[in-house]
């Protein structure tokens, strides 16, 4: 298992490096991103907003998320590697510059330096610790799940538990035309676990202090 995790991590780092090289070609402007987020705030700018497809869950908090990860996720929707219909439609309407600007905006949006670092981190139960070790989660997302080893990976600490659960299940069902996520690394990891185990992982990661948040925004300004 350790050899497999080392191999998977090497592939992830190589992929992130390739994406980072591309991302450097398009520099994001946070101020420009603030003028382009009309399609985002209707879901991600409302506290507790719930999506209803493929099941009911709170949409992810994206303010304070890593810009490179937001850009990578939007490009994955645009390329069809992530198959959620609404997000694919939005991503298809964005240029590379739009994506870079929105990513820069949300990384800086509502950011509070040091808030997560000052909070107490809950220790996982023995069962959850075993699951985390089995998945090698900290190898990419960091021991506190708030400082990933590369900014093209997401901060997960504090993220909505039901969203994390839905996302992990989507990696298990990557071939589904309307909700699958096609990522060989995450797919291989997620498929090691039952849905009940994925829910336990999601609940623990949600309990951790993190930087990501929902900042209420008005749809019409």
Describe this structure in words.
With 221 residues, this protein is mainly α. A two-stranded antiparallel ribbon has the order 1-2. About 7% of the residues have low confidence. It is globular, with a radius of gyration of 17 Å. The N and C termini lie far apart (52 Å). It contains 12 helices and 2 strands. The relative contact order is 0.19. The protein has one domain: Cytochrome c-like domain (Cytochrome Bc1 Complex, Chain D, domain 2, Orthogonal Bundle), CATH 1.10.760. A hairpin with a 5-residue loop joins strand 1 and strand 2. Helix 10 crosses helix 11.
Structure annotation, total helices: 12
Principal-axis shape equals: globular
Number of domains: 1
Instruction: Indicate the low-confidence ranges by residue numbers.
Output: 6-14, 16-21
Radius of gyration: 17 Å
Number of strands: 2
What do we call the CATH topology? Cytochrome Bc1 Complex, Chain D, domain 2
The percentage helix is 40-55%
**What is the CATH C level class, in words?**
Mainly Alpha
* Beta-strand percent range: under 5%
Mean pLDDT: 89
Straight-line distance between termini: 52 Å
In the sheet with the most strands, the strands line up as 1-2
Q: Structural class, judged by helices and strands?
A: mainly alpha
Q: How is the biggest beta sheet arranged?
A: 2 strands, antiparallel
């Amino acid at each position: 298992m350790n050899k497999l995790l080392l191999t998977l991590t090497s592939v992830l780092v190589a992929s992130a490096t390739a994406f980072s090289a591309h991302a450097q070609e398009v520099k994001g402007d946070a101020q420009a991103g603030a003028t382009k987020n009309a399609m985002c705030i209707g879901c991600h700018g409302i506290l507790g907003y719930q999506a209803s497809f493929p099941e009911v869950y709170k949409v992810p908090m994206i303010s304070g998320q890593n810009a490179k990860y937001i850009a990578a996720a939007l490009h994955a929707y645009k390329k069809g590697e992530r198959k959620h219909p609404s997000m694919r439609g939005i991503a298809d309407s964005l240029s590379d510059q739009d994506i870079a600007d929105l990513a820069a905006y949300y990384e800086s949006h509502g950011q509070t330096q040091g808030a997560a670092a000052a909070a107490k981190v809950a220790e996982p139960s023995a069962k959850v610790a075993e699951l985390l070790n089995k998945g090698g989660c900290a190898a990419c997302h960091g021991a506190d799940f708030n400082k990933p080893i590369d900014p093209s990976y997401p901060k997960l600490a504090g993220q909505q538990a039901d969203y994390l659960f839905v996302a992990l299940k989507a990696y298990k069902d990557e071939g589904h035309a309307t909700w699958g996520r096609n990522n060989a690394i995450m797919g291989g990891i997620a498929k090691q676990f039952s849905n009940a185990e994925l829910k336990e992982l999601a609940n623990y990661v949600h309990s951790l202090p993190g930087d990501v948040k929902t900042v209420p925004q008005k749809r019409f300004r």
